[in-house]
């Protein structure tokens, strides 16, 4: 119950913009990149509310009205993710890290470890191949362009798909693939405009994009190493 069993439930995740900036800095500065995974992370969070639960199935204790008083958070509790993030944040802060105000998932220290300068190539090759396998197009004939020239899709041509969820799932996978595939951003942007009522024409053009991915599964972004790191911005204005 809100206000009794739990209070705050929000737990931040790292922003994609933050990840891209860090990878760009690592490529430019020659930093060493490492990652880790915490097993059963939510079980490490400290539970501050008084929460009780029924005995696990198969456990027979003395007495028929016994319950468990939780001392730690469990998977399934609404505040479990927040408890874990609070525990993890405190550990980093106690270790001398500072927390970013722009992205609460970013912690940093005023210390750098430079390595030999190397470029960093970002690719989602396995993910692209998994999309092709999921769509039964792993053996498709490659195309050279992600979409037809001057293609204009609408909500009228073609028949409504019998299973629109398949189209939505495919476009969702493609959206995630654009993290490193800037060459398909425009096409995916167009396809994502028809998620509510996708038609056969939209599915055909999505399949064409998959044929393009078949020929370029490992294409990605090269973050070249350079001591001259400059922040640049661009803008786009549509012609009226």
Describe what this molecule looks like in 3D.
With 240 residues, this protein is mainly alpha-helical. The chain has two domains: 16-108, no CATH class; 125-217, no CATH class. It is built from six helices and six strands; from the N terminus they run αββαβββααααβ. The chain has a two-stranded antiparallel ribbon. It has a two-stranded antiparallel sheet with strand order 3-4. A hairpin with a 7-residue loop joins β3 (98-99) and β4. The termini are far apart. Residues 3-121 form the Reverse transcriptase Ty1/copia-type domain. InterPro entries: DNA/RNA_pol_sf (IPR043502), RVT_2 (IPR013103). This is Reverse transcriptase Ty1/copia-type domain-containing protein.
User: How far apart, in Å, are the first and last alpha carbons?
Assistant: 54 Å
Shape: extended
Question: How large is the radius of gyration?
Answer: 24 Å
Number of helices: 6
The overall strand count is 6
- Helix and strand composition category: mainly alpha
Strand content: 5-15%
Helix content: 25-40%
Q: What is the mean predicted local confidence, pLDDT?
A: 82
Strand order of the largest sheet: 1-2
Low-confidence runs: 110-116
Largest sheet: 2 strands, antiparallel
Count of the domains: 2
Task: Report the order of strands and helices.
Answer: HEEHEEEHHHHE
